[in-house]
């Protein structure tokens, strides 16, 4: 049974034990790597930081569904902020944006199940899903136009949205397919 | 590697409160604070927020780095926002600004309005952080799941948050072991060579085993939970929480704050405050 068939039989939106545990693992890993603050600046664009562990979020969404993706991003970011001591709600809009990116990444296998026939096509779809999910999910930070009225549209666009989109898209496009390629043979082996 | 929640506020007045109080306080505060724009009102709110923070008894030595980083990040973003917007946002969106300095080559302006906006932003963020820090340091890590459940979050999500917190120290250990194992094989995690894509790909020997190993290991947890009938009936929690009168008073104070902030916002009594001494200058 393929993962797609398994997911459809469980229901894309149902919260099973599997969803709970995968989401907890994803969130714990994302929080841990957020806490360790992995990342490096792009040469020539120091405001753009690439966080490799962002690819974990899109991978968990892509491999285990939208609920796991959302919980990995949202809870992972909240717990990561908690671990670092900045408080769960200080940057709540970023946590929601991370969650939405994971959720959108998780919708791709549902939409494109028929096109993902080989491991290679899954990896390519995962890369595309990661980038599109990042671009869509992080649109949520424009909520700051309401919650922080001092921030103008241009300021949010140039100092927050675009740098984050560039860095996270690069991480998602590279790390997500690597993880898909590593996970697929193991998934077949354990029969999930 | 150590990665766990340091329970720094243990025994303090705030830590003795029901953990739901701290979560509700943070949540309600985030609803109220963004509705205030006037720097004078926000300064008063910050003082109250710091008073609340003080009751958590968090030693400053232990969190000075977090505070310094937070203030630096807030100031950085507020400063760049000021340069990019030129102070023409919020209440000052359609007014003629009082430019103090124009910075070449792009002519970015530092205006009285921009500085006033920056002050409001910094004060608000600092206040939100002051109310948020106790959530990180004054709630016993084991109480988070049950507190969320008692706040109406579903059992499964509450368990998921609980599991997340329990997994972190284990995964941190596995992460450390993976780095050590790869070092033995000649991997250098501190290497700075190559472009961003090369460096990203170089992280694979760390990310792949930790992630895939964790997922494969999760199968045992899933089986154990399924075998114990997780999710088939109503779940009970060993830890009992009790809301006492003081807890109600604290939550009531935060609700009152949010109500006042909403009133000030809707009645137009919280507009951005133009710092007068800068104009006279």
What does this structure look like?
The complex is a heterodimer of chains A (about 190) and B (about 280). With about 190 residues, chain A is mainly α. Chain A has helices spanning about 5-10, 15-35, 55-65, 65-85, 90-110, 120-135, 145, 155-190; strands spanning about 40, 45-50. In chain A, strands 1-2 form a two-stranded antiparallel ribbon. In chain A, a hairpin with a 2-residue loop joins strand 1 and strand 2 (about 45-50). Chain B is mainly α and about 280 residues long. Chain B has 10 helices and 2 strands; from the N terminus they run H-H-H-E-E-H-H-H-H-H-H-H. Chain B has a two-stranded antiparallel sheet with strand order 1-2. The chains are: A mainly alpha (about 190), B mainly alpha (about 280). At the A-B interface, helix 2, helix 3, helix 4 and helix 8 of A face helix 1, helix 3, helix 4, helix 6 and helix 7 of B.
């Amino acid at each position: 049974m393929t993962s797609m068939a398994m997911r459809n039989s469980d229901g894309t939106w149902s919260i099973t034990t599997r969803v709970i545990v995968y989401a907890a693992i994803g969130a714990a890993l994302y929080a841990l790597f957020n806490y360790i603050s992995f990342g490096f600046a792009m040469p020539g664009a120091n405001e753009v930081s690439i966080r490799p562990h962002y690819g974990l979020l899109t991978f968990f969404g892509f491999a285990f569904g939208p609920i796991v993706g959302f919980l990995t991003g949202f809870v992972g970011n909240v717990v990561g902020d908690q671990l670092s001591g900045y408080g769960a709600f200080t940057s709540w809009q970023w946590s929601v944006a991370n969650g939405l990116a994971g959720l959108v990444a998780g919708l791709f296998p549902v939409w494109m199940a028929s096109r993902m026939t080989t491991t290679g096509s899954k990896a390519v779809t995962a890369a595309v899903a990661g980038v599109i999910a990042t671009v869509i999910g992080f649109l949520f930070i424009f909520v700051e136009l309401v919650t922080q009225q001092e921030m103008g549209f241009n300021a949010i666009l140039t100092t927050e949205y675009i740098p984050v989109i560039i860095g996270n898209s690069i991480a998602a496009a590279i790390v997500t397919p690597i993880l898909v390629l590593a996970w697929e043979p193991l998934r077949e082996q354990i029969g999930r | 590697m150590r990665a766990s929640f340091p329970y720094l506020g243990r025994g303090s007045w705030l830590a003795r409160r029901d953990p739901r109080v701290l979560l509700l306080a943070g949540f309600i505060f985030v609803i109220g604070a963004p509705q205030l724009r006037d720097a004078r009102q926000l300064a008063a709110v910050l003082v109250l927020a710091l008073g609340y923070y003080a009751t958590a008894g968090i030693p400053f030595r232990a969190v000075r780095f977090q505070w310094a980083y937070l203030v630096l990040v807030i100031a950085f973003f507020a400063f760049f926002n000021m340069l990019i917007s030129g102070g023409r946002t919020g209440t000052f969106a359609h007014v003629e600004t009082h430019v103090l300095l124009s910075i070449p080559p792009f002519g970015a302006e530092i205006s009285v309005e921009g500085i006033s906006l920056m002050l409001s932003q910094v004060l608000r963020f600092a206040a939100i952080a002051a109310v948020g820090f106790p959530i990180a340091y004054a709630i016993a890590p084991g109480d988070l799941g049950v507190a969320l459940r008692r706040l109406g979050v579903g059992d499964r999500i509450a368990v998921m948050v609980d599991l997340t917190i329990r997994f972190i120290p284990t995964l941190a250990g596995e992460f450390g072991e993976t780095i050590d194992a790869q070092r033995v094989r000649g991997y250098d995690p501190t290497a700075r060579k190559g472009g961003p894509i090369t460096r990203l790909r170089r992280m694979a020997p760390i990310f792949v085993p930790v992630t895939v190993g964790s997922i494969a290991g999760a199968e045992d947890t899933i089986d154990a939970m399924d075998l114990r009938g997780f999710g088939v009936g109503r779940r009970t929690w060993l830890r009992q929480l009790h809301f006492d009168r003081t807890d109600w008073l604290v939550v009531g104070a935060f609700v009152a704050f949010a109500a006042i902030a909403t009133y000030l916002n809707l009645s137009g009594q919280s507009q951005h405050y133009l710092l007068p001494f800068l104009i006279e200058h």
